[in-house]
Amino acid sequence: MRKQAARRRVTRIEVGDDGTVVRRAVREDHVAAEEPLEIRLGGRSFVVTMRTPGHDVQLAQGFLVGEGVIRGRDDLLSARYCAGEVEGENTYNVLDLQLAPHVPAPLASAERHTYTTSSCGVCGKASIDAVRTISAFDVASDPLEVQVTELIGLPERLRTEQRVFDRTGGLHGAALFDGRTGELLVAREDVGRHNAVDKVIGWAVEHDKLPLAGTILMLSGRAGFELIQKASMAGIPCVAAVSAPSSLAAELAQEAGITLVGFLRDRSMVAYSGAHRLVGEVNPA
User: Fold this and answer.
1) What is the DSSP letter of 73?
2) Which one of 122, 192, 217, 232 has the fewest CB atoms closer than 10 angstroms to its CB?
3) Is the pLDDT of residue 35 over 60?
């Protein structure tokens, strides 16, 4: 398995209340791994993204769902690593996927004309209009009801799955839960929050679970527009985050019929859309 963390020699500096340096120590520490991944379709470059190595095929599959290229497992024939550029050896940083014959190749206008950074899921789009892809799934009609008492425990359950974060402190996490039973279905980590979500959705592609009706997507950070877009494309009816959503994320969630919860911390939360799915008795005291 590719390394998701690397050791690096660092200098730790501590500053006292008076502004002077009270301690300086050199030691080895872990940092999150970050490498480029080029995704090709039928041998043609489609996008280059910066990611934490691991679950690369799931990342690519989830990315293609979010871009509207595929809708499920039957839309892909194969995925394989190609040789890299380092002395002719396989760097495991180039992944080529073959679309099924019935799947049309994406238009050139849909391709990313620059690389996607680990912090930005939609940078490099040829046209911002292409971001508002129409989902194949009717998320708004999903009858899911979520008990708020179950919802408040999800951040900690995600946190316990972030093993690489424990060593590095530098990875985002995303987890998918069954909204009815509370079962953890899958959790993934990555330097890019959008990559972590792509890996979760890619897992669902592999297990033929799209659309992801009745599920909750839990995010370790903020809920940006691109993450709500990906949830909509995968048929996820509820997205929860420990931090705030952006205004565009809240607008898209409302438009798509997604329940969007932010500031899910301790025993409180803020519903930005779809509050009708959040149920529980209100204590009049």
Assistant:
1) G
2) 122
3) yes
